[in-house]
Each structure stands twice: as C-alpha cells, then as structure tokens.
Amino acid sequence: MQGTVEDYKSKYEDEINRRTAAENEFVTLKKDVDAAYMNKVELQAKADSLTDEINFLRALYEAELSQMQTHISDTSVVLSMDNNRSLDLDSIIAEVKAQYEEIAKRSRAEAESWYQTKYEELQITAGRHGDDLRNTKQEISEINRMIQRLRSEIDHVKKQIANLQAAIAEAEQRGEMALKDARGK
Known about the structure:
Belongs to the intermediate filament family. The chain is mostly helical and 185 residues long.
C-alpha cells in the first residue's frame, strides 16, 4: 500500500512539474506575442511616415516643375530696332540677336537638364520608398502570420494546462481515496 501511495505521490509531483513548465511556457509565449504586436505597431507607423514623405516629395516635385516650366516659357529674346542710319546695323543686330538666342538656348538646356536630373532623383527616391513600403507591408503580414501561429500555440498550451489540471485533480482524488482505503484497512 505504501508503494501505491508513493507511486501516486510521484505522479502528482510529475503533474505539478508539468503544469509549472506549461505555465512558464505560456508566459514566454505571451511575451513573444506582445513583442510581435509592438513591432507591428512600429512598422505600421513607419509605413505611414514613408507614405506621407512620398506624397510630400511628389507635391514638391510638381510645384518645382511647374515653376521651372513657367520660368523657361518666359525666357525669350526679341530684338528689333527702327534705325534709319545706313550703318551695317542689320548684321550687328543679327549677331547680337544670335548671341542672345544662343545664351537663352543654353540656359533653357541647362535648366531642362537640371530639372530632368531632379526628376530622375525624385523617381529613384519614390521607387526606393515604394520598395520600403512594400517590404514593411510584407513584414507586417509575416508578423500577423506569426501572431496567428502563436495564438494557436497558446490555445493549445491552455488546453494542455486544463488537461493537466484535470489530471492533477483526478490524481489527487484517487490519492485521497487510496489513502482512505489504506486507513480503513
């Protein structure tokens, strides 16, 4: 009879140890889920910030492009003179006009080149931010999957804990009954 009591006592201690281990694992899993949720919140805030920055850069680019196009269209050289002297002013005027037109053409080309470069830089930046946004959304999706998996594991651990508690209660009851039987004999 003493052997049976010792056996039940050993089983009871094993069940207590398993329950403690399951509770510790549950606490660890809860910490992991909390950390994953905080990470998700941070990533979402980062994605929103990047979206706002992309929208701001697009608006800035549109404003600068519009301003530069207005500036370029206002640049033109018109030179005409009404002079009755019979100097060779026509060739001088033609030469000066050609020089000014060349300067205006060069300025226009430089401005267009500069804005083309700026446009390409903004496109690259917008593309990079788009990639960052896609990567962030993918990370959020992965974190959501991990949260679902952890919730499933937590539910499983809760069921194990409930089963262990039921087994412990049953073992305690059997132990008490065995103890009563042993005392009765």
